[in-house]
Design goal:
Elements lengths: L9 H17 L10 H6 L3 H6 L2 H12 L9 H9 L11 H10 L1 H4 L27 H9 L25 H11 L41
């Protein structure tokens, strides 16, 4: 509709674009975006729509997919099986969490393959993004056991940090924040349990590839 109706009113075009950004990117929950009635009603007031905490809404949508399901008899085992699949369906905007991880873990960022294209969004001539290779499970496993691994806390832990009115205090989260504030050095033994079915990878330094020119001997004239 945004592409075909050239005479559409600008205010209607803006509202449709906002709905698509929310339902198709920030709060994505289906392969083909379908407008959510709640968000459609909210867009009547554009100013209130823009001031809504979409970041929190998106985070809650994403983090719910990473927690054990509540309607299962063995929720933890169900989550373990889901995480062992080759693909996993995430909702919300998990890209934001990936960017935080790449910034907090510099060693992980070095595993990102160099893109074949350096075109920015403003320079694209086609209606889709070029495909780029990403990090895989082996990259994560190698980073976890690398002795050079370091993780930097990015979230400020000031005493007067703004919190949501309906957010209950979690003693476990407060304990973790206290350790981070004390610059505690975490190690792998601080995180028991988890999935240990895979053998721990052995980190070996990468061998630089030496490119040699392919030369063909010249034919000699008899």
């Amino acid at each position: 509709m945004l592409k075909t109706e050239e005479n559409m009113r600008s205010d209607k075009r803006l509202r449709l674009a906002l709905i698509m950004i929310v339902d198709g990117v920030l709060i994505a929950h289906k392969q083909v975006p379908r407008p959510t009635l709640q968000y459609v009603q909210m867009v009547d007031n554009v100013e209130a729509f823009l001031n809504f905490p979409w970041g929190r809404e998106s985070y809650l949508k994403t983090i719910t997919c990473m927690k054990p399901p509540l309607d299962e008899d063995e929720p933890v085992q169900t989550l373990v099986k889901l995480l062992q699949q080759t693909t996993y369906r995430l909702q919300g905007f998990p890209l934001a969490l990936q960017l935080v991880a790449f910034q907090a873990i510099p060693l992980l960022a070095t595993k990102i393959p160099s893109p074949h294209y350096s075109t920015t969004l403003l320079e694209l001539q086609v209606p889709h993004l070029p495909l780029h290779k990403s990090v895989n499970i082996n990259d994560f496993l190698l980073v976890e056991v690398d002795p050079q691994l370091s993780v930097t806390a990015l979230i400020p832990l000031a005493p007067n940090t703004t919190v949501w009115g309906d957010e209950p205090e979690d003693e476990r989260a407060l304990y973790m924040e206290e350790l981070i504030a004390q610059n505690h050095e975490f190690n792998i033994h601080d995180w028991p349990c988890g999935d240990s079915s895979k053998q721990e990878p052995i980190v070996q330094p990468a061998v630089p590839t030496i490119h040699r020119k392919h030369t063909v001997p010249k034919k000699t004239v008899p």
